[in-house]
Amino acid sequence: MPTYVHGYEARESKRLEDQARILEALLHDGTVFPPGSRVLEAGCGTGAQTVALAQRSPQAQFTAVDLDAVSLARAKERLQAAGIASVQLQQADLCAMPFPAASFDHVFVCFVLEHLREPAATLRALGRLLRPGGTLTVIEGDHGSVLIHPESAAVHDAVDGLVELQGRAGGDACIGRRLQPLLVEAGMREVRVQPRVAYADGSRPDWAEAFTRRTFAAMVEGVREPLLAAGLATPERFDEALRALDRAAESDGSFSYTFFKAVAVAEFLDSPSGSHS
What we know:
10 strands, alpha/beta, two-stranded antiparallel ribbon
Protein backbone atom coordinates (compact mmCIF):
# COMPACT_ATOMS: atom_id res chain seq x y z
CA MET A 1 0.00 0.00 0.00
CA PRO A 2 1.44 3.42 -0.93
CA THR A 3 2.17 6.01 1.78
CA TYR A 4 1.31 9.58 0.82
CA VAL A 5 3.73 11.71 2.85
CA HIS A 6 1.90 14.96 2.03
CA GLY A 7 -1.30 13.93 3.83
CA TYR A 8 -4.94 14.27 2.83
CA GLU A 9 -5.90 17.58 4.44
CA ALA A 10 -7.92 20.27 2.64
CA ARG A 11 -4.77 22.38 2.18
CA GLU A 12 -3.10 19.56 0.25
CA SER A 13 -6.19 19.13 -1.91
CA LYS A 14 -6.07 22.84 -2.76
CA ARG A 15 -2.35 22.61 -3.56
CA LEU A 16 -2.97 19.73 -5.95
CA GLU A 17 -5.72 21.73 -7.65
CA ASP A 18 -3.41 24.74 -8.09
CA GLN A 19 -0.66 22.45 -9.37
CA ALA A 20 -2.93 20.78 -11.91
CA ARG A 21 -4.16 24.13 -13.20
CA ILE A 22 -0.74 25.74 -13.79
CA LEU A 23 0.84 22.53 -15.16
CA GLU A 24 -2.01 21.36 -17.38
CA ALA A 25 -0.64 22.56 -20.70
CA LEU A 26 2.93 21.56 -19.82
CA LEU A 27 2.11 18.01 -18.72
CA HIS A 28 -0.93 17.11 -20.82
CA ASP A 29 0.16 18.54 -24.16
CA GLY A 30 0.04 15.69 -26.69
CA THR A 31 -2.16 13.42 -24.57
CA VAL A 32 -5.39 12.96 -26.51
CA PHE A 33 -7.37 9.73 -26.39
CA PRO A 34 -9.48 8.79 -29.45
CA PRO A 35 -13.31 8.79 -29.28
CA GLY A 36 -14.64 5.65 -27.66
CA SER A 37 -11.34 4.80 -25.95
CA ARG A 38 -11.49 3.06 -22.59
CA VAL A 39 -9.00 4.87 -20.36
CA LEU A 40 -7.90 3.93 -16.86
CA GLU A 41 -6.46 6.60 -14.58
CA ALA A 42 -4.62 4.66 -11.88
CA GLY A 43 -4.34 6.62 -8.64
CA CYS A 44 -6.57 9.59 -9.45
CA GLY A 45 -6.46 11.09 -5.95
CA THR A 46 -8.77 14.07 -5.64
CA GLY A 47 -9.29 14.28 -9.40
CA ALA A 48 -6.90 17.15 -10.06
CA GLN A 49 -5.62 15.49 -13.24
CA THR A 50 -8.86 13.66 -14.03
CA VAL A 51 -10.71 16.82 -15.00
CA ALA A 52 -7.98 17.87 -17.44
CA LEU A 53 -7.85 14.40 -19.01
CA ALA A 54 -11.60 14.20 -19.51
CA GLN A 55 -11.87 17.73 -20.88
CA ARG A 56 -9.10 17.11 -23.40
CA SER A 57 -10.65 13.83 -24.61
CA PRO A 58 -14.41 14.44 -24.22
CA GLN A 59 -15.45 11.37 -26.24
CA ALA A 60 -13.29 8.88 -24.35
CA GLN A 61 -14.64 6.84 -21.44
CA PHE A 62 -12.63 7.04 -18.23
CA THR A 63 -12.38 4.85 -15.16
CA ALA A 64 -10.54 6.68 -12.35
CA VAL A 65 -9.34 4.54 -9.46
CA ASP A 66 -7.96 5.42 -6.04
CA LEU A 67 -7.61 3.67 -2.70
CA ASP A 68 -8.71 6.61 -0.53
CA ALA A 69 -12.48 7.13 -0.22
CA VAL A 70 -12.14 10.75 0.92
CA SER A 71 -10.07 11.60 -2.14
CA LEU A 72 -12.61 9.92 -4.40
CA ALA A 73 -15.41 11.97 -2.83
CA ARG A 74 -13.47 15.14 -3.62
CA ALA A 75 -12.86 13.89 -7.17
CA LYS A 76 -16.60 13.33 -7.60
CA GLU A 77 -17.28 16.92 -6.50
CA ARG A 78 -14.73 18.27 -8.98
CA LEU A 79 -16.12 16.27 -11.86
CA GLN A 80 -19.67 17.34 -11.08
CA ALA A 81 -18.63 21.00 -10.83
CA ALA A 82 -16.96 20.71 -14.25
CA GLY A 83 -20.03 19.04 -15.76
CA ILE A 84 -18.11 15.90 -16.68
CA ALA A 85 -20.07 12.65 -16.96
CA SER A 86 -17.54 10.52 -18.86
CA VAL A 87 -15.67 9.36 -15.74
CA GLN A 88 -16.55 6.39 -13.55
CA LEU A 89 -14.92 6.56 -10.12
CA GLN A 90 -14.01 3.35 -8.33
CA GLN A 91 -12.25 2.56 -5.06
CA ALA A 92 -9.51 0.00 -5.54
CA ASP A 93 -5.94 -0.88 -4.58
CA LEU A 94 -3.41 -0.49 -7.40
CA CYS A 95 -1.78 -3.69 -6.18
CA ALA A 96 -5.04 -5.64 -6.63
CA MET A 97 -6.98 -4.03 -9.46
CA PRO A 98 -10.49 -5.51 -10.02
CA PHE A 99 -10.27 -5.60 -13.82
CA PRO A 100 -9.57 -8.49 -16.20
CA ALA A 101 -6.68 -8.42 -18.65
CA ALA A 102 -7.06 -6.20 -21.75
CA SER A 103 -9.86 -4.14 -20.17
CA PHE A 104 -8.52 -0.77 -21.35
CA ASP A 105 -7.17 0.91 -24.43
CA HIS A 106 -4.95 3.28 -22.48
CA VAL A 107 -3.67 3.69 -18.93
CA PHE A 108 -2.63 7.02 -17.40
CA VAL A 109 -0.57 7.34 -14.20
CA CYS A 110 0.49 10.71 -12.75
CA PHE A 111 2.41 11.42 -9.52
CA VAL A 112 1.74 7.90 -8.21
CA LEU A 113 4.88 5.81 -8.72
CA GLU A 114 6.95 8.04 -6.45
CA HIS A 115 4.92 6.75 -3.48
CA LEU A 116 5.18 3.02 -4.28
CA ARG A 117 7.61 0.46 -2.86
CA GLU A 118 7.58 -1.62 -6.07
CA PRO A 119 6.82 0.69 -9.00
CA ALA A 120 8.03 -1.75 -11.66
CA ALA A 121 5.66 -4.44 -10.39
CA THR A 122 2.79 -1.96 -10.46
CA LEU A 123 3.66 -0.92 -14.02
CA ARG A 124 3.77 -4.57 -15.05
CA ALA A 125 0.33 -5.17 -13.56
CA LEU A 126 -1.07 -2.09 -15.28
CA GLY A 127 0.40 -3.20 -18.58
CA ARG A 128 -1.60 -6.42 -18.38
CA LEU A 129 -4.79 -4.36 -18.29
CA LEU A 130 -4.09 -2.96 -21.76
CA ARG A 131 -5.63 -4.34 -24.92
CA PRO A 132 -3.38 -5.07 -27.93
CA GLY A 133 -2.25 -1.68 -29.23
CA GLY A 134 -2.84 0.15 -25.95
CA THR A 135 -0.46 2.65 -24.40
CA LEU A 136 0.72 3.50 -20.91
CA THR A 137 1.42 7.16 -20.06
CA VAL A 138 3.35 7.98 -16.89
CA ILE A 139 4.21 11.40 -15.45
CA GLU A 140 6.49 11.88 -12.44
CA GLY A 141 8.55 14.66 -10.90
CA ASP A 142 12.15 14.60 -9.71
CA HIS A 143 13.06 16.56 -6.59
CA GLY A 144 16.72 16.33 -7.53
CA SER A 145 16.06 18.69 -10.43
CA VAL A 146 15.40 21.80 -8.30
CA LEU A 147 17.26 24.94 -9.42
CA ILE A 148 16.76 28.20 -7.57
CA HIS A 149 18.01 31.79 -7.70
CA PRO A 150 19.12 33.35 -5.43
CA GLU A 151 20.84 30.10 -4.55
CA SER A 152 19.83 28.64 -1.20
CA ALA A 153 21.46 25.77 0.63
CA ALA A 154 18.51 25.79 3.02
CA VAL A 155 16.10 24.98 0.18
CA HIS A 156 18.25 22.07 -0.94
CA ASP A 157 18.46 20.84 2.66
CA ALA A 158 14.65 20.92 2.94
CA VAL A 159 14.24 19.11 -0.39
CA ASP A 160 16.83 16.51 0.61
CA GLY A 161 14.91 16.00 3.84
CA LEU A 162 11.68 15.49 1.90
CA VAL A 163 13.42 12.96 -0.36
CA GLU A 164 14.69 11.10 2.70
CA LEU A 165 11.26 11.19 4.35
CA GLN A 166 9.61 9.76 1.26
CA GLY A 167 12.34 7.14 0.98
CA ARG A 168 11.69 6.01 4.54
CA ALA A 169 8.02 5.60 3.61
CA GLY A 170 9.03 3.34 0.72
CA GLY A 171 8.85 5.86 -2.11
CA ASP A 172 11.27 7.75 -4.35
CA ALA A 173 10.85 11.50 -4.84
CA CYS A 174 13.51 11.42 -7.58
CA ILE A 175 11.81 8.71 -9.62
CA GLY A 176 11.34 10.86 -12.73
CA ARG A 177 14.86 10.10 -13.97
CA ARG A 178 14.16 6.36 -13.60
CA LEU A 179 11.06 6.08 -15.78
CA GLN A 180 12.80 4.63 -18.83
CA PRO A 181 14.56 1.76 -17.02
CA LEU A 182 11.50 1.12 -14.85
CA LEU A 183 9.23 0.74 -17.87
CA VAL A 184 11.73 -1.52 -19.60
CA GLU A 185 12.01 -3.62 -16.42
CA ALA A 186 8.21 -3.83 -16.38
CA GLY A 187 8.25 -5.44 -19.82
CA MET A 188 7.22 -2.40 -21.85
CA ARG A 189 8.52 -1.50 -25.31
CA GLU A 190 8.72 1.63 -27.46
CA VAL A 191 9.47 3.63 -24.32
CA ARG A 192 9.74 7.36 -24.98
CA VAL A 193 10.55 9.82 -22.19
CA GLN A 194 10.41 13.60 -22.42
CA PRO A 195 11.59 16.07 -19.75
CA ARG A 196 9.08 18.86 -19.20
CA VAL A 197 10.53 21.82 -17.34
CA ALA A 198 8.43 24.06 -15.11
CA TYR A 199 10.26 27.37 -15.00
CA ALA A 200 9.36 30.67 -13.37
CA ASP A 201 11.13 34.02 -13.31
CA GLY A 202 10.26 37.72 -13.42
CA SER A 203 8.96 37.43 -16.97
CA ARG A 204 6.44 34.80 -15.85
CA PRO A 205 4.84 36.20 -12.69
CA ASP A 206 1.84 33.88 -13.03
CA TRP A 207 4.16 30.87 -12.84
CA ALA A 208 6.11 32.38 -9.95
CA GLU A 209 2.92 32.76 -7.95
CA ALA A 210 1.12 29.56 -8.98
CA PHE A 211 4.05 27.16 -9.21
CA THR A 212 6.92 28.48 -7.08
CA ARG A 213 4.72 29.71 -4.23
CA ARG A 214 1.39 27.88 -4.32
CA THR A 215 2.64 24.55 -5.62
CA PHE A 216 6.26 23.83 -4.69
CA ALA A 217 6.68 26.02 -1.61
CA ALA A 218 3.26 24.90 -0.39
CA MET A 219 4.32 21.27 -0.79
CA VAL A 220 7.49 21.86 1.23
CA GLU A 221 5.60 23.78 3.91
CA GLY A 222 3.08 20.93 4.16
CA VAL A 223 5.74 18.46 5.35
CA ARG A 224 7.16 20.75 8.04
CA GLU A 225 5.90 18.75 11.01
CA PRO A 226 6.86 15.31 9.64
CA LEU A 227 10.36 16.58 8.79
CA LEU A 228 10.85 18.10 12.23
CA ALA A 229 9.48 15.00 13.94
CA ALA A 230 11.87 12.79 11.95
CA GLY A 231 14.85 14.97 12.83
CA LEU A 232 15.39 15.84 9.18
CA ALA A 233 15.11 19.60 9.69
CA THR A 234 15.31 22.27 12.36
CA PRO A 235 12.65 24.99 12.67
CA GLU A 236 15.14 27.76 11.92
CA ARG A 237 16.63 26.10 8.83
CA PHE A 238 13.21 25.11 7.53
CA ASP A 239 11.87 28.65 7.89
CA GLU A 240 14.96 29.89 6.05
CA ALA A 241 14.08 27.55 3.17
CA LEU A 242 10.52 28.87 2.99
CA ARG A 243 11.78 32.46 2.92
CA ALA A 244 14.20 31.56 0.12
CA LEU A 245 11.44 29.95 -1.95
CA ASP A 246 9.30 33.04 -1.50
CA ARG A 247 12.29 35.21 -2.48
CA ALA A 248 12.78 33.16 -5.67
CA ALA A 249 9.27 34.15 -6.74
CA GLU A 250 10.19 37.85 -6.77
CA SER A 251 10.84 39.69 -10.04
CA ASP A 252 14.62 39.08 -9.94
CA GLY A 253 14.42 35.46 -8.80
CA SER A 254 13.90 32.18 -10.63
CA PHE A 255 12.85 28.61 -9.94
CA SER A 256 13.04 25.49 -12.10
CA TYR A 257 11.77 21.94 -11.66
CA THR A 258 11.75 19.07 -14.15
CA PHE A 259 8.93 16.59 -14.67
CA PHE A 260 9.34 13.48 -16.84
CA LYS A 261 6.61 12.15 -19.11
CA ALA A 262 6.87 8.65 -20.55
CA VAL A 263 4.74 6.78 -23.07
CA ALA A 264 5.19 3.04 -23.62
CA VAL A 265 3.53 -0.05 -25.08
CA ALA A 266 3.39 -3.48 -23.47
CA GLU A 267 5.93 -5.77 -25.14
CA PHE A 268 3.42 -8.38 -26.28
CA LEU A 269 1.16 -5.78 -27.91
CA ASP A 270 0.90 -4.50 -31.45
CA SER A 271 1.59 -0.89 -32.43
CA PRO A 272 -0.21 1.79 -30.39
CA SER A 273 -3.22 3.72 -31.59
CA GLY A 274 -4.13 7.33 -31.01
CA SER A 275 -1.87 10.28 -30.21
CA HIS A 276 -0.02 10.16 -26.90
CA SER A 277 3.22 12.03 -26.33
